[in-house]
Amino acid sequence: MTVPETTTDTTPPVPAAQGAVANGAGESGGGRIEENGVRGSLASAGPGDAAGDLGSSVVAGAGPVGRPGDRATVRLRGGEPEEPPRYAPEWLRLRETADAAARAEELLDPLRARLAGGARQGGALAVHDVGCGTGSMGRWLAPRLAGAQHWILHDRDPYLLHFAAVGSPRSAADGSGVTVETRRGDVARLTPDALAGASLVTASALLDVLTREEVVTLADACAGAGCPALLTLSVAGRVELTPEDPLDKDIAEAFNAHQRRGGMLGPDAVTVACEAFAARGAAVRVHPSPWRLGPQESALTEQWLRGWVGAAVEQRPALRERAERYLRDRLAACAAGELRVVVHHSDLLALPRPTGGAS
Q1: pLDDT at 185
Q2: Angle at Cα 136 formed by Cα 16 and Cα 353, nearest 5°?
Q3: pTM here?
């Protein structure tokens, strides 16, 4: 069994406004929320700052451009040295509303049907949120499921785990209680023992930063524990910008190549996960979950653009000169309310074969 570095049990969560961080949670404002970002503030920069941004280190995903020397928060692979945080709560907050709007509600009815017929520990659903960030998945999903719930939040970063615990919802769809515990550990090395008693495994924006081996490990753990998995917001490798620009395709291709560096699956993650879960007898459903960004989401669009273009240039330095012009123009259009972006993602639901031979 994989032993987490630190395990902290918490009492039923304190409302965010009463916790250590005022307004520290919430999908629509004021919070410090969700996945893939950078350490530090997200102070807005104007279009003229684009060239400087392209000289910074970048997130291996659709996030803002980081500061030189920043490292990833979530250490997915054993043997790597300890690293300072990089996935800033400010970025996670910024994307939470778009994430919540994008997740596929269509997958919830089959999930609810399966959970209704499953065993519950002590009468409560046991939900493991893998790579939880500051807990936006729980804030979205817990109020959509009926019955008492106990959420086990997994992440490498104790700072984010603090926000996740403080901002966790207190009640389920029917008013039943929701409790939470946090586990700091290696989210890509879960075993069936670590998921013993689990009713459900969830993750958000995680699959695309895993390797094939790590996805297989996750599928093995879920199959061994006999629990469903709801894995949301995996990048699909497709972006639509309106108005179009001739450089859109080159930037997108370079970005997708950047996501595959170091063996990470990037846009191939959902296909690999479908194969892995199906090979272990699960029924797998996939549904699109795109971000749809317009003038109301300009702050998120700006930061996403900086990260998207920055990663493309890091992958393909020959793009730099054209990309600097491209980013300036795109940021100007964003500031003017003239840019619309669709960032395609996919949500995956894997339902294990029911016990007892039922179909």
Answers
A1: 79
A2: 135
A3: 0.79
